[in-house]
Structure formats: structure tokens, C-alpha cells
Amino acid sequence: MTATAQPETAAPRAPVLTLQRMMPALLLMPCLAWISFFFLLPLALMCWRSLTAEGFSLAAYSTLFTSALYAKVMLTTVKTASIATVLALSLAYPLAYALTLSGGKLRALILVFVLIPYWVDIIVRSFSWLILLGDNGIINKMLMTLGVVHTPLELLYNPFSVLVAMVQILLPLTTVILFGAMLRIDRTLIAAAKIHGAGGWQAFRTVFFPLSLPGVYGAALLVFVLSLGFYVTPALLGSPRETMIAQTIMVEANQLLDWEQASAAGFVLLVITTLIAAIYNRYFSLDRLWGGSDA
Amino acid sequence: MSAAAARIGLGAAVTVILAYLIFPVVVVLAISFSSGNFLSFPPPGFSLRWYQAIAGDPEWVSALFVTLKVGSLAALLATLLGVPAAFALVRYVIPAKALLSALILCALVTPPVVTAISTYLFFVPLGLVNTIVGLACAHAVSGMPFVVINTAASLRSADRNLERAAIIHGAPPLWAIIRITLPIVSPGIIIGAILAFVHSAHELLIATFLLGGVGKPVAVKIWSGVQATSDPTIAAASAILIGLAILTFASVAAAQSLARRRSA
Question: Is the Cβ of A14 closer than 8 Å to some Cβ of chain B?
Fold first, then answer.
């Protein structure tokens, strides 16, 4: 009985209601369709491709997990990414902290300095270190003029040069993320600590620093994920004996044309980064990233 | 430690770190104006010869146009797809909203090499390899997060009552959005679009696979250059990119101060 009555009352309002209900789906559909077609579908195809070496097999994966080459490459990648993350965080922390303390013109000035390198191509920034750290580069020249060393130091094509450039590349983003996290800390708590007799250093160490740690952990996860995928910097400044995973995948695909192997390595890298990104998303929520336009 | 000493220490540390950040940019700019034949810093003298070399080289000029075409198309696509998505995410209660926004943003944290090989494998059978449109379609995916993030931030801070007022006074809802809300959030949209463009101009790996042969964009040309040559042409090409970056940075700052004046 009620079933027949319901459509009658609902009928006149139905079209408006459906349009209202459909609106978010209509707005999201083009974007999601595009991502599915141009991003997710290719990734699925890559996964499929990794399984089709010699018919259908896990051969590419068994190579991946048994070969000494891949073990070494993965070790180098994780090691480099971890050190780069720690260094980027330790340099970004004072910058972000200074940003929270300063106001007005000084804050704007520091932000401009932090953000300008972010707008410069990674290739260009890595290339610049190639010039600076070379045998005739300004750093070696200065050291030799000062008499610190007599023969140029070998600053290039080793983990040192890779890290110097990587940290410089990661620093703007790390600083902006940490700054965003620090801005959410309630400053009155530090004032309260000082009223209760804490010195500036003690207030920082016992109140501000512990409160900033969640932001640091979040930034660490994100910077680590980005570091894992670095290609240009290690390819240009690193030792050919110590390559990172992105370089190996590029060689497999671009030079050896071994697409099954490249796809398998790519898929494993994708799984690792997606897992870390999922942990980040679970605890820190991805869409808080960059908080829009903090510049 | 006294407060003053701590401040001086922090100030010194910040100065050193900022110098480390900005030094590579200064070096490339300086070398691009070098009169010498080699990549040495400080340069022996001032000249514009490397800029003339680029302007006179049809390959560099065409690379610049390829980058402009791919970047504009990618930014346009990212804007057309991303702005409606940002509206949906900010304005509506949607099931699995966190998952959807994570999906839109995950292109940012996916290693570029993974995106590059998967896109290439996918584009070969579709015939999209070696096309400007194909590269722009791929770059639109990674450009979209910038548009969505910035548009969503503008939308959240925009006063929705202005739109409501227009509707109460008889404006059709869609018209109210176009005439009232879009102009208010336009700085956010513009910043997002510029960031999407810059992202496309810098992207190397997808571009290497899709346009690595003929009709290279600037990033691919610079990359093959830094591995081979040792004259300052690369520095000049890089400096042009830095110039473009500073120009876009300035326009972002202008757009933001415009936004602030509007909201004030």
C-alpha cells in the first residue's frame, strides 16, 4: 500500500533530486576516468607484461629476487634514500622552525629562497653540482688555494655527490611540509612552559620538539618514497658501480629492451612505494600535502 | 644557552642552508653568461654567445616549442579535469572520499620510472608514441594533483555565502558558480595550472620514451646534452628554464597578492 503511495509523492521532485545526487559523480567522473585510462590501466598492463616472459611465468620475479645484481641495487637504493631522507629532514627542520619564528618580510624572504630551487629543473640542479664538485670546480679550487689539499679531491661520481644533490633537491618540499606541520602546533603551549619557568631551550626540547615529531615522521615517509624513485641525480653524479633501482629499470627497458624484467622491477618498486604511501595516507592523509598554496 | 645566542646560532644555520639551496641556481645562471668555452665557475667574462647559439639552433628552438605545446595542453587538460573534481571533493559528501582523493594524488608519489615504462607499454598499441598529444595526456595525470590541491584550498577558504546570495537573488545555480565562485577561486586554479605546466616541462622519463627520438622537448634535449657536451650551451638552456621558472613564480606571487587584495 505504501509502496504505491510513495512514487506519487516523490515523482514531481525526482528529476531535481537525481541531478543533485548525480552531481558529485558527474563532476568526478571525467577526472577518475582519465586517471583509470591513462594511469591505472597502463600500470595493470605493466603488471601483466611482467608475467609474460616465455609464455606465462614468474621468471622475471625469480630473477629479481635471486640475482645478486638486484639485491645490490635495492640495497644501494634503500641506503641512499634513507640517508638522503635523514639529511633533508635535519636541514629542513631549522629552516621550518626559523619560518615559524619569523614573521612578515623575513618569513617571505626565507620562503622565496626555499621555493626558487623548487621551480628549477632537477636535471639543471644536478648538472650544477657536476660543475661545482668537479676537479676544476670551485670547491676543489678553494680547498687548493687555501692549501687544505694539494691534489683535487674526488668529489664526483660517488655517494657523496649523489647525496649533496639529492638533499638540495628534496629540501624545498621537506621544508614546506615541516613548516605546515609546525604551524599546526599550538604556540600557547610553549608560552605556558615558559611561564612555568622553562628556559627557551628547555621549552623547545620538552614541548615544541615532541609536538613536531608527528610532522617529522610524515615528512620522512614522503621524502623517502620520493627518494626511492630518483633517476637523474644518481645517473649523472653517481658511480656506475652503485646504481639505484630507477637507473636499472631504465637500462633494462631502454637499452636491453627486456620489458618483462623492467616491468617486474617496476611493479615491485610500485608495490613498495604504494605501501609506504598508504601508511602515510592512513596516519597523515595525503590531501593535507602542501596545504594548498602556502607560498 | 641564552636566548640571544640560540637565535644567532639558528640564524647562522639558516643562512648556510639557504646558501646551499640557492648556490646551484646562481652557478648555472652565471655560467650561461660566460664568455669562455668551458663549464668553469666563476666564468672568465660576460657574453651572450651561448644564448645566441641556442636562438640560432633550430633544434633548440623546436624543443622549446614542443615543451610549450605539451605543457600547455597538459595544463589545460589537468585544469578541465581537476577543477570539477575539486568542487566535488570540497562541496559534497561522497562515499570513500579519502580513497578517491588518494587516487587523484597518488600520481605524485609513484616513481616516475614506473609511470614512464607503463605508459610506454600502453601507448605503443594505441599509436600514441611520438605524438605531442600522447605525452600531454600522460602529463595531465601527474599535473592534475596540483590543480586539485590548489583549487580545493581556494574553494575551502572562499565564502560560499556570496554564491548563495546570488542564487537567492534569482541567479541559476550554475550561473552563480560561473559568475561568482569561479572568479573567487581563479587564483588557485591558475597556480594549479602553472604548477602542472612546470611539472610537464621538467618531466624527463615519460618524455624520453614518448618523444625521445624526433621532436624532443627541452628536458630530453638538456638531458642528452648534460651527458655528452661540456660547453655552456646547456647552462644557457638551463638558464632559460630558470628564467621561465622565475617568471612563472612571479606570476604566481602576483596571482596570490591579487587574491589577497580581493579577499581583503
Answer: no
Q: What is the pTM of this model?
A: 0.88
Radius of gyration of chain B (CA): 22
Most confident residue range from A47-51, B79-83, B160-164, B240-244: B79-83
Give the ipTM: 0.89
Indicate whether A169 and A239 sit together in one domain: yes
Select from A23, A26, A28 the residue whose CB has the most chain B CBs within 10 Å, as the one to mutate to test that interface. A28
| Position A278 in a domain | yes
Residue A110's CATH number: 1.10.3720.10
Say whether both A140 and A31 belong to one domain.
no
**Cβ <8 Å between B22 and A117:** yes
Q: Single out the residue of B193, B248, B203, B206 nearest to residue B81, CA to CA.
A: B193
Q: What is the dihedral of CA A268, A271, A272, A276, to 10 degrees?
A: 170
Same domain, A41 and A171: no
Q: Is B127 left (phi over 0), alpha (psi -120 to 50) or beta?
A: left
Q: How close, in Å, is residue A7 to chain B by CA atoms?
A: 25
- Contact between chains at B120 and A130 (C-beta distance less than 8 A): no
Distance from CA of A203 to the nearest CA of B (A): 11
| Alpha carbon B84 to its chain's center | 20
- The pLDDT tens digits for A147-185 are 888 888 888 899 999 999 999 999 999 999 899 889 888
- In this prediction, residues B31-59 reach a mean pLDDT of 83
Position A10 in a domain: no
Shared domain for A45 and A66, answered yes or no, is no
Domain presence at residue A7: no
Cβ contact, residue pair A46, B121, below 8 Å: yes
Quick check: is A3 in a domain?
A: no
Domain that holds residue A131: 59-291
Q: Which of B22, B88, B118 lies nearest to residue A45, judging by beta carbons? A: B118
For an interface test with B, give the residue of A45, A293, A294 to mutate (most B CBs within 10 A).
Answer: A293
Provide Rg for chain A, Cα atoms: 26
**B141, A34: Cβ pair inside 8 Å?**
yes
With both helix axes pointing from N to C terminus, report the angle between B218-228 and B182-202 in degrees, rounded to the nearest 10: 30
- Structural domains of chain B, with CATH: 57-263 (1.10.3720.10)
